[in-house]
């Protein structure tokens, strides 16, 4: 019995189409990996990294987990970052969240989902840190969107504090950090303005971004 045969059919069609449009693509791809970007995103199936930014296989190094969290004790995530920075020499680390993130909403609503509740504790900590600002937003959806944004910004700061990143900057390596958020409802990316190029500017940029977010919308 052939299981999931339609997915294998899709794969063969895709590979044939790619090779037809760009002969030798897979041979070239198999011989090198030189992406300039590391994408740290959410596991949500609606947020496909390469497709969103229009990059081909081999052009984007990707790590995904629930709610795009960067936790200092997560060896999986740290290993990806270390390999991307020290071996692949990526020039950009992009933390990308998305509006309507199920993990963020579950944390905000204190939902009980099982093992994942322990992972979402990190998001709850961010909610607690910014609780005064979040409580000032009366509209529930806007409050959820704001926590999604704050989560991305906090995760970029977590990346900036990693010894892997600090050491890269110390030795003069060209490495920039970015915070983006994606709208599942319209397919568009938004820059959250937390682009960091060295350790000295990280805190000031963070404080300015948080301050601007807290300015009431007219």
- State the secondary-structure class: alpha/beta
Terminus-to-terminus distance: 61 Å
Sequence stretches where pLDDT stays below 50 over 5 or more residues = none
Over all CA atoms, what is the radius of gyration?
A: 19 Å
Number of helices: 10
Name given to the CATH architecture? 3-Layer(aba) Sandwich
Give the total of beta strands. 5
CATH class: Alpha Beta
Q: Name the CATH homologous superfamily.
A: Carbonic anhydrase
Largest sheet: 5 strands, mixed
Sequence-ordered SSE layout with sheet pairings:
Blueprint: H1 5-21, H2 25-30, E1 37-42, H3 49-53, E2 60-65, H4 75-87, E3 92-98, H5 102-108, H6 116-129, H7 131-135, H8 140-160, H9 163-170, E4 176-183, E5 188-191, H10 202-213
Parallel strand pairs: 1-2, 1-3, 3-4
Antiparallel strand pairs: 4-5
Helix pairs in contact: 5-6, 8-10
Write a brief structural summary:
The chain is α/β, with parallel strands linked by helices. The protein has helices spanning 5-21, 25-30, 49-53, 75-87, 102-108, 116-129, 131-135, 140-160, 163-170, 202-213; strands at 37-42, 60-65, 92-98, 176-183, 188-191.
Question: What can you see in these coordinates?
Answer:
By secondary structure, the protein is of the alpha/beta class. The chain has one domain (34-212): 3-Layer(aba) Sandwich (Beta-carbonic Anhydrase, Chain A), CATH 3.40.1050. It is built from ten helices and five strands; from the N terminus they run ααβαβαβαααααββα. It has helices at 5-21, 25-30, 49-53, 75-87, 102-108, 116-129, 131-135, 140-160, 163-170, 202-213; strands at 37-42, 60-65, 92-98, 176-183, 188-191. It has a five-stranded mixed sheet with strand order 2-1-3-4-5. α5 (102-108) packs across α6 and α8 packs antiparallel against α10 (202-213). The longest helix has 21 residues, at 140-160. It is globular. The N and C termini lie far apart (61 Å).
